[in-house]
């Protein structure tokens, strides 16, 4: 199986287009979280008061420059001000978004990973309908592992897990339940909570199932290029036969 890594830039109206056009030395790196975004804004030039005021309008400042040697500001903003549909369009075409998005000189720079070149082409045709877009690179990645720069967003790995499921998973991990040999049992874990053993086990199993399902796409990336079938797996649909 081959992977395809495509990098491209596009222009459309977004909250950071004007500021990145106005200050061409500015670089904005954008990470999406479940309910907000984090921006790292850098420049080799010392910031003006006007630029700092513009940055404060973007969102809550988490880190500010401490000297006049350059600019390094980190902000947090609400996702409600963003057009999130482009990430959904990546998913529609089976393309994995590789953060961060980089804003520079009015352009948004993206990198995606796909399992089929046709998916990349379909994505570009879709985006060309309402955006100015330029392909920067498209590379076939064959017989090698996942690119080192490809990181699974934490919020996607834990998407769909409830607070109780996360708490059950954290307790099991902290008490050594996943060690070999196990450092604890389900009965002992449940005794540390206010719920019955069956309830605790249900929370834990659902958490495990959701976590594995969420990681499934990234598992395909990690195993691409490894030995064809190191376990010699029988993938037939017949149920395993056991001796009585």
Automatic annotation (TrEMBL):
<protein>
    <submittedName>
        <fullName>Helix-turn-helix domain-containing protein</fullName>
    </submittedName>
</protein>
<feature type="region of interest" description="Disordered">
    <location>
        <begin position="225"/>
        <end position="244"/>
    </location>
</feature>
<dbReference type="Pfam" id="PF24280">
    <property type="entry name" value="HVO_A0563_N"/>
</dbReference>
<dbReference type="InterPro" id="IPR007050">
    <property type="entry name" value="HTH_bacterioopsin"/>
</dbReference>
<dbReference type="InterPro" id="IPR056531">
    <property type="entry name" value="HVO_A0563_N"/>
</dbReference>
<feature type="domain" description="HTH bat-type">
    <location>
        <begin position="161"/>
        <end position="212"/>
    </location>
</feature>
<feature type="domain" description="HVO-A0563 N-terminal">
    <location>
        <begin position="5"/>
        <end position="150"/>
    </location>
</feature>
<dbReference type="InterPro" id="IPR036388">
    <property type="entry name" value="WH-like_DNA-bd_sf"/>
</dbReference>
<keyword id="KW-0804">Transcription</keyword>
<dbReference type="Pfam" id="PF04967">
    <property type="entry name" value="HTH_10"/>
</dbReference>
<feature type="compositionally biased region" description="Basic and acidic residues">
    <location>
        <begin position="232"/>
        <end position="244"/>
    </location>
</feature>
<keyword id="KW-0805">Transcription regulation</keyword>
């Amino acid at each position: 199986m081959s992977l395809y890594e495509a990098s491209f830039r596009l222009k459309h109206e977004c909250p950071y287009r004007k500021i990145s056009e106005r200050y061409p030395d500015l670089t904005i790196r954008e990470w999406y979280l479940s309910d907000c975004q984090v921006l790292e804004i850098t420049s080799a030039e010392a910031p003006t008061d006007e630029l700092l005021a513009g940055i404060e309008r973007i969102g809550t400042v988490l880190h500010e420059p401490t000297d006049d040697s350059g600019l390094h500001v980190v902000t947090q903003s609400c996702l409600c001000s963003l057009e999130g549909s482009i990430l959904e369009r990546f998913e529609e075409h089976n393309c994995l978004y590789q953060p961060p998005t980089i804003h520079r000189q009015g352009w948004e720079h993206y990198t995606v990973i796909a399992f089929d070149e046709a998916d990349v082409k379909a994505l570009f045709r879709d985006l060309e309908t309402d955006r100015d877009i330029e392909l920067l690179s498209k590379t076939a990645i064959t017989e090698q592992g996942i690119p080192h720069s490809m990181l699974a967003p934490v919020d996607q790995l834990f998407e769909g897990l409830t607070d109780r499921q996360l708490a059950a998973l954290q307790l099991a991990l902290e008490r050594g339940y996943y060690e070999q040999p196990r450092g604890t049992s389900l009965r002992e874990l449940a005794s540390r909570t206010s719920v019955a053993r069956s309830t605790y086990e249900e929370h834990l199993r659902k958490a495990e199932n959701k976590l594995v399902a969420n990681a499934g796409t990234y598992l395909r990336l990690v195993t691409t290029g490894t030995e064809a079938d190191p376990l010699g797996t029988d993938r037939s649909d017949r149920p395993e036969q056991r001796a009585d």
